[in-house]
């Protein structure tokens, strides 16, 4: 048992238990999503003690130097004193290289980032310091791969014109905060059915075979498997099969949430979505699908990309109501159960704490840390 100090709370991390699992077990509030180190939501800063090197290996150099680790990847071997991530450490140092004027008065800025900046086209960010006397909101529009520049669009009425004389522009340093989550205003409508494709896929028989092979890969994949904790493979295959059947045939056979709501908490960047698509293509080829069949299937999956890919969770919605999922609550049990952390029996009438999204309950011993 390794003692942990975090925001004035004391707990003990068990042997071979990650910091994130210890936080959830003891009811410590922390952002998290993937549990595989991809989303970086569970960053914490080591103030005292030595964390395992692998807990920071996937982080940019500037975050490693600042003492950050991923709670989901950190299994302590000794005491640690930790702090939440600091907004001051989440800034990206940038250098302005060019500005292009547009006829409508807006501008496109080209700049270099000193450290890795992952974003989705359309996300917003704030620029400040240097030539920006007050924060300026920009829309990230892409990358100029030839020159290694990030491109951002800024409206003419918010840009401090005097600060951008062309001869003083090159090399101006500034800070970037963001990018901020981009949630589509409306979720994607179901695509037009393609009954011919369904028939080409042997009336769904090939769909079932591919999904069975695909989810064998997913449940063995260290990046994707954590998204499916406590969900049986059979259930996932059944849900995905009925959803694809409804999309391709138009038959109303799927019972469940649409992709945007179902994936609301999953932080899935484009790189992870592409990784998922590669595993799907492998499974399809292994089951003998033709390029025509694969292309038709991929069209349905790409249709929902914007409802799935994101750099921060979106709220879960029921109509116009936002459903809170990222906090703890307590309940008094009508029936006995077992602790999800250690397997001990919990008697009926006990009051237990649980995480709303995960639904895991703990016995008094586990909750105390």
UniProtKB/TrEMBL annotation:
<protein>
    <submittedName>
        <fullName>Oxidoreductase FAD-binding subunit</fullName>
    </submittedName>
</protein>
<dbReference type="InterPro" id="IPR001041">
    <property type="entry name" value="2Fe-2S_ferredoxin-type"/>
</dbReference>
<dbReference type="Pfam" id="PF00111">
    <property type="entry name" value="Fer2"/>
</dbReference>
<keyword id="KW-0408">Iron</keyword>
<dbReference type="GO" id="GO:0020037">
    <property type="term" value="F:heme binding"/>
</dbReference>
<dbReference type="Pfam" id="PF01152">
    <property type="entry name" value="Bac_globin"/>
</dbReference>
<keyword id="KW-0479">Metal-binding</keyword>
<dbReference type="GO" id="GO:0019825">
    <property type="term" value="F:oxygen binding"/>
</dbReference>
<keyword id="KW-0349">Heme</keyword>
<dbReference type="InterPro" id="IPR009050">
    <property type="entry name" value="Globin-like_sf"/>
</dbReference>
<feature type="domain" description="2Fe-2S ferredoxin-type">
    <location>
        <begin position="1"/>
        <end position="90"/>
    </location>
</feature>
<dbReference type="InterPro" id="IPR012292">
    <property type="entry name" value="Globin/Proto"/>
</dbReference>
<feature type="binding site" description="distal binding residue">
    <location>
        <position position="263"/>
    </location>
    <ligand>
        <name>heme</name>
    </ligand>
</feature>
<dbReference type="GO" id="GO:0046872">
    <property type="term" value="F:metal ion binding"/>
</dbReference>
<dbReference type="InterPro" id="IPR012675">
    <property type="entry name" value="Beta-grasp_dom_sf"/>
</dbReference>
<dbReference type="InterPro" id="IPR001486">
    <property type="entry name" value="Hemoglobin_trunc"/>
</dbReference>
<dbReference type="InterPro" id="IPR036010">
    <property type="entry name" value="2Fe-2S_ferredoxin-like_sf"/>
</dbReference>
<keyword id="KW-0813">Transport</keyword>
<dbReference type="GO" id="GO:0051536">
    <property type="term" value="F:iron-sulfur cluster binding"/>
</dbReference>
């Amino acid at each position: 048992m390794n003692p942990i100090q975090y925001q004035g709370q004391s707990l003990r991390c068990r042997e071979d238990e990650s910091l994130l699992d210890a936080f959830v077990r003891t009811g410590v509030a922390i952002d998290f999503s993937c549990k595989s180190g991809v989303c970086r939501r569970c960053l914490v800063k080591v103030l005292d003690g030595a964390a395992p090197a692998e807990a920071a290996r996937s982080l940019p150099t500037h975050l490693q130097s600042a003492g950050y680790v991923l709670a989901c990847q950190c299994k302590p071997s000794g005491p640690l004193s930790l702090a939440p991530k600091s907004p001051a450490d989440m800034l990206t140092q940038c250098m302005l290289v060019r500005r292009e004027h547009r006829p409508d008065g807006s501008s496109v800025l080209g700049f270099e980032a000193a450290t890795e900046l992952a974003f989705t086209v359309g996300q917003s960010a704030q620029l400040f310091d240097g030539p920006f006397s007050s924060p300026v909101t920009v829309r990230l529009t892409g990358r100029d791969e030839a020159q290694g520049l990030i491109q951002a669009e800024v409206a003419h009425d918010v840009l401090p014109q005097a600060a951008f004389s062309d001869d003083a522009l090159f090399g101006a340093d500034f800070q970037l905060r963001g990018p901020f989550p981009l949630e589509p205003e409306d979720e994607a409508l179901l695509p037009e059915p393609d009954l011919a494709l369904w028939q080409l896929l042997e009336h769904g028989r090939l769909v079932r075979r591919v999904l069975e092979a695909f989810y064998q890969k997913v449940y063995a994949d260290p990046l994707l498997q954590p998204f499916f904790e406590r969900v049986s493979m059979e259930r996932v295959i059944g849900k995905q099969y009925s959803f694809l059947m409804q999309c391709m045939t138009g038959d109303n056979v799927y019972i469940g949430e649409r992709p945007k709501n179902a994936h609301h908490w999953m932080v899935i960047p484009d790189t992870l979505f592409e990784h998922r698509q590669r595993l799907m293509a492998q499974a399809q080829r292994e089951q003998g699908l033709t390029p025509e069949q694969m292309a038709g299937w991929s069209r349905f999956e790409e249709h929902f990309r914007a409802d799935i890919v994101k750099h921060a969770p979106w709220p879960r919605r029921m109509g116009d109501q936002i459903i809170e999922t990222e906090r703890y609550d307590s309940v008094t049990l009508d029936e006995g159960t077992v602790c999800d952390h250690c397997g001990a029996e919990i008697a009926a009438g006990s009051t237990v704490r649980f995480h709303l999204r995960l639904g895991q309950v703990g016995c008094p011993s586990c909750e105390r840390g």
